[in-house]
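COMPLEX REQUEST
Ligand: fe (iii) ion
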Amino acid sequence: MTKEISYQKNYVPLTRDELVDRLRKALREKRFQHVLRVEQTAIELAKKNGVDVEKASIAGLCHDYAKQRPAEDFIAEIKKKGLDPDLLNYGNAIWHGVVGAELVKDELGIWDEDILNAVRHHTTGAPVMTKLEQVIYMADYIEPGRDFAGVDKAREITAADLGAGVAYQTKQTLEYLITRAKPVYPKTIETYNAWVPQYEGKID
Ligand code: DGI
Ligand code: FE
Ligand code: FE
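STATUS: Structure written out below.
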Protein backbone atom coordinates (compact mmCIF):
# COMPACT_ATOMS: atom_id res chain seq x y z
CA MET A 1 0.00 0.00 0.00
CA THR A 2 1.33 3.42 -0.92
CA LYS A 3 1.95 5.62 2.06
CA GLU A 4 1.85 9.36 1.53
CA ILE A 5 3.01 11.31 4.51
CA SER A 6 2.49 14.97 5.20
CA TYR A 7 5.68 16.86 5.99
CA GLN A 8 5.76 18.57 9.39
CA LYS A 9 9.42 19.33 10.03
CA ASN A 10 10.58 21.89 7.42
CA TYR A 11 13.37 19.76 5.94
CA VAL A 12 12.08 20.98 2.57
CA PRO A 13 10.20 24.22 1.78
CA LEU A 14 7.58 22.28 -0.19
CA THR A 15 4.68 19.92 0.50
CA ARG A 16 5.19 16.28 -0.47
CA ASP A 17 2.88 16.80 -3.49
CA GLU A 18 4.95 19.79 -4.62
CA LEU A 19 8.18 17.83 -4.17
CA VAL A 20 6.74 14.90 -6.17
CA ASP A 21 5.80 17.38 -8.94
CA ARG A 22 9.38 18.69 -9.05
CA LEU A 23 10.66 15.10 -9.45
CA ARG A 24 8.04 14.34 -12.13
CA LYS A 25 9.28 17.36 -14.11
CA ALA A 26 12.98 16.51 -13.62
CA LEU A 27 12.77 12.85 -14.67
CA ARG A 28 11.49 10.59 -17.40
CA GLU A 29 8.49 8.44 -16.45
CA LYS A 30 10.44 5.22 -15.81
CA ARG A 31 12.95 6.95 -13.55
CA PHE A 32 10.15 8.87 -11.79
CA GLN A 33 8.37 5.58 -11.00
CA HIS A 34 11.66 4.17 -9.62
CA VAL A 35 11.98 7.20 -7.33
CA LEU A 36 8.44 6.65 -5.97
CA ARG A 37 9.28 2.98 -5.26
CA VAL A 38 12.53 3.94 -3.55
CA GLU A 39 10.57 6.38 -1.36
CA GLN A 40 8.13 3.63 -0.29
CA THR A 41 10.93 1.12 0.36
CA ALA A 42 12.88 3.75 2.30
CA ILE A 43 9.83 4.50 4.47
CA GLU A 44 9.49 0.78 5.30
CA LEU A 45 13.18 0.41 6.12
CA ALA A 46 13.08 3.64 8.15
CA LYS A 47 10.22 2.39 10.33
CA LYS A 48 12.01 -0.88 10.92
CA ASN A 49 15.32 0.77 11.78
CA GLY A 50 14.23 3.73 13.88
CA VAL A 51 14.94 6.34 11.19
CA ASP A 52 12.91 9.56 10.70
CA VAL A 53 10.22 8.64 8.15
CA GLU A 54 9.95 12.19 6.83
CA LYS A 55 13.69 12.29 6.05
CA ALA A 56 13.42 8.86 4.41
CA SER A 57 10.58 10.07 2.18
CA ILE A 58 12.42 13.25 1.14
CA ALA A 59 15.77 11.53 0.55
CA GLY A 60 14.08 8.64 -1.31
CA LEU A 61 12.29 11.06 -3.63
CA CYS A 62 15.39 13.24 -4.20
CA HIS A 63 18.14 10.60 -4.49
CA ASP A 64 18.08 10.53 -8.33
CA TYR A 65 16.88 14.15 -8.81
CA ALA A 66 19.90 14.97 -11.01
CA LYS A 67 20.13 11.65 -12.89
CA GLN A 68 19.00 13.09 -16.23
CA ARG A 69 20.97 16.33 -16.18
CA PRO A 70 23.53 16.98 -18.92
CA ALA A 71 27.25 16.64 -18.13
CA GLU A 72 27.75 20.42 -18.36
CA ASP A 73 25.41 21.01 -15.39
CA PHE A 74 27.53 18.71 -13.21
CA ILE A 75 30.83 20.19 -14.44
CA ALA A 76 29.54 23.72 -13.72
CA GLU A 77 28.44 22.67 -10.23
CA ILE A 78 31.80 20.98 -9.47
CA LYS A 79 33.52 24.27 -10.34
CA LYS A 80 30.95 26.51 -8.61
CA LYS A 81 31.17 24.57 -5.32
CA GLY A 82 34.92 23.88 -5.55
CA LEU A 83 34.34 20.11 -5.32
CA ASP A 84 37.22 17.61 -5.70
CA PRO A 85 38.56 18.03 -9.28
CA ASP A 86 39.08 14.24 -9.45
CA LEU A 87 35.30 14.09 -9.92
CA LEU A 88 35.87 15.38 -13.45
CA ASN A 89 37.45 11.99 -14.29
CA TYR A 90 34.14 10.20 -13.66
CA GLY A 91 30.70 10.53 -15.19
CA ASN A 92 26.98 10.51 -14.56
CA ALA A 93 27.09 7.29 -12.47
CA ILE A 94 29.11 9.12 -9.81
CA TRP A 95 28.02 12.71 -10.44
CA HIS A 96 24.26 12.24 -10.08
CA GLY A 97 24.68 11.47 -6.36
CA VAL A 98 27.80 13.34 -5.23
CA VAL A 99 27.16 16.45 -7.34
CA GLY A 100 23.41 15.88 -7.53
CA ALA A 101 23.20 16.57 -3.78
CA GLU A 102 24.46 20.11 -4.48
CA LEU A 103 21.71 20.61 -7.07
CA VAL A 104 19.15 19.29 -4.57
CA LYS A 105 20.40 21.90 -2.09
CA ASP A 106 20.47 24.78 -4.61
CA GLU A 107 17.26 24.00 -6.48
CA LEU A 108 14.97 22.25 -3.97
CA GLY A 109 16.07 24.21 -0.90
CA ILE A 110 16.99 21.16 1.21
CA TRP A 111 19.76 21.99 3.68
CA ASP A 112 19.62 19.03 6.06
CA GLU A 113 23.09 17.43 5.85
CA ASP A 114 21.80 13.96 6.71
CA ILE A 115 19.38 14.07 3.76
CA LEU A 116 22.06 15.58 1.49
CA ASN A 117 24.57 12.89 2.52
CA ALA A 118 21.99 10.20 1.79
CA VAL A 119 21.74 11.60 -1.77
CA ARG A 120 25.52 12.11 -2.01
CA HIS A 121 26.37 8.56 -0.96
CA HIS A 122 23.50 6.60 -2.48
CA THR A 123 25.61 5.16 -5.34
CA THR A 124 29.04 4.61 -3.74
CA GLY A 125 28.17 4.31 -0.07
CA ALA A 126 30.70 5.76 2.39
CA PRO A 127 32.90 4.35 5.16
CA VAL A 128 30.69 6.00 7.79
CA MET A 129 26.98 6.20 7.01
CA THR A 130 24.09 7.24 9.24
CA LYS A 131 21.09 4.91 9.40
CA LEU A 132 19.30 7.25 6.96
CA GLU A 133 22.17 6.94 4.48
CA GLN A 134 22.10 3.14 4.85
CA VAL A 135 18.32 3.11 4.33
CA ILE A 136 18.55 5.09 1.07
CA TYR A 137 21.55 3.09 -0.20
CA MET A 138 19.59 -0.14 0.36
CA ALA A 139 16.15 1.11 -0.75
CA ASP A 140 17.66 2.09 -4.12
CA TYR A 141 19.10 -1.42 -4.49
CA ILE A 142 16.12 -3.55 -3.40
CA GLU A 143 13.03 -1.51 -4.42
CA PRO A 144 10.37 -3.83 -5.93
CA GLY A 145 11.21 -2.89 -9.54
CA ARG A 146 14.76 -4.31 -9.27
CA ASP A 147 15.18 -7.80 -10.72
CA PHE A 148 18.91 -8.53 -11.06
CA ALA A 149 20.45 -11.82 -9.91
CA GLY A 150 20.90 -11.67 -6.15
CA VAL A 151 18.22 -9.07 -5.42
CA ASP A 152 16.09 -11.48 -3.38
CA LYS A 153 19.13 -12.38 -1.31
CA ALA A 154 19.80 -8.65 -0.84
CA ARG A 155 16.18 -8.19 0.33
CA GLU A 156 16.47 -11.06 2.84
CA ILE A 157 19.79 -9.90 4.25
CA THR A 158 18.58 -6.29 4.53
CA ALA A 159 15.36 -7.36 6.29
CA ALA A 160 17.46 -9.22 8.88
CA ASP A 161 20.27 -6.65 9.28
CA LEU A 162 20.52 -3.25 7.53
CA GLY A 163 24.33 -3.10 7.90
CA ALA A 164 24.74 -6.57 6.41
CA GLY A 165 22.66 -5.36 3.45
CA VAL A 166 25.08 -2.47 2.99
CA ALA A 167 28.00 -4.91 3.02
CA TYR A 168 26.26 -7.26 0.56
CA GLN A 169 25.48 -4.50 -1.95
CA THR A 170 28.98 -3.04 -1.68
CA LYS A 171 30.59 -6.40 -2.40
CA GLN A 172 28.24 -7.13 -5.32
CA THR A 173 28.76 -3.68 -6.86
CA LEU A 174 32.55 -3.90 -6.66
CA GLU A 175 32.47 -7.38 -8.24
CA TYR A 176 30.21 -6.02 -11.00
CA LEU A 177 32.51 -3.08 -11.74
CA ILE A 178 35.65 -5.22 -11.77
CA THR A 179 34.05 -7.90 -13.96
CA ARG A 180 33.21 -5.21 -16.52
CA ALA A 181 36.58 -3.40 -16.28
CA LYS A 182 34.81 -0.20 -15.13
CA PRO A 183 36.63 2.55 -13.19
CA VAL A 184 36.08 2.30 -9.44
CA TYR A 185 35.55 5.59 -7.63
CA PRO A 186 37.90 5.72 -4.59
CA LYS A 187 34.98 6.17 -2.16
CA THR A 188 33.55 2.84 -3.37
CA ILE A 189 36.77 1.10 -2.30
CA GLU A 190 36.74 2.92 1.05
CA THR A 191 33.16 1.72 1.54
CA TYR A 192 34.23 -1.82 0.71
CA ASN A 193 37.06 -1.80 3.28
CA ALA A 194 34.90 -0.29 6.01
CA TRP A 195 31.86 -2.55 5.54
CA VAL A 196 32.63 -5.85 3.82
CA PRO A 197 35.42 -7.62 5.80
CA GLN A 198 33.48 -7.32 9.07
CA TYR A 199 30.68 -9.42 7.51
CA GLU A 200 33.02 -12.07 6.08
CA GLY A 201 31.21 -15.42 5.85
CA LYS A 202 27.78 -13.84 6.51
CA ILE A 203 26.95 -12.27 3.16
CA ASP A 204 27.76 -14.93 0.57
O1 DGI B 1 20.78 5.62 -10.16
P1 DGI B 1 20.32 4.19 -10.05
O2 DGI B 1 20.40 3.47 -11.37
O3 DGI B 1 18.98 4.05 -9.42
O4 DGI B 1 21.34 3.41 -9.05
P2 DGI B 1 22.77 3.89 -8.53
O5 DGI B 1 22.79 5.32 -8.22
O6 DGI B 1 23.13 2.95 -7.41
O7 DGI B 1 23.74 3.67 -9.76
C1 DGI B 1 24.11 2.39 -10.08
C2 DGI B 1 25.20 2.47 -11.13
O8 DGI B 1 26.36 3.11 -10.61
C3 DGI B 1 25.59 1.07 -11.52
O9 DGI B 1 25.59 1.01 -12.95
C4 DGI B 1 26.98 0.91 -10.97
C5 DGI B 1 27.48 2.33 -10.92
N1 DGI B 1 28.53 2.51 -9.91
C6 DGI B 1 28.48 2.29 -8.58
N2 DGI B 1 29.68 2.51 -8.00
C7 DGI B 1 30.51 2.88 -8.99
C8 DGI B 1 29.78 2.90 -10.22
N3 DGI B 1 30.34 3.21 -11.41
C9 DGI B 1 31.64 3.52 -11.42
N4 DGI B 1 32.21 3.82 -12.58
N5 DGI B 1 32.41 3.53 -10.30
C10 DGI B 1 31.91 3.22 -9.06
O10 DGI B 1 32.64 3.23 -8.07
FE1 FE C 1 21.17 6.75 -8.44
FE1 FE D 1 18.07 5.21 -7.87
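REMARKS: The pocket of fe (iii) ion (ligand 2) is lined by residues 63-64, 67, 96-97, 122-123, 140 (CB under 6 Å). The CA atoms of residues 7 and 15 lie 6 Å apart.
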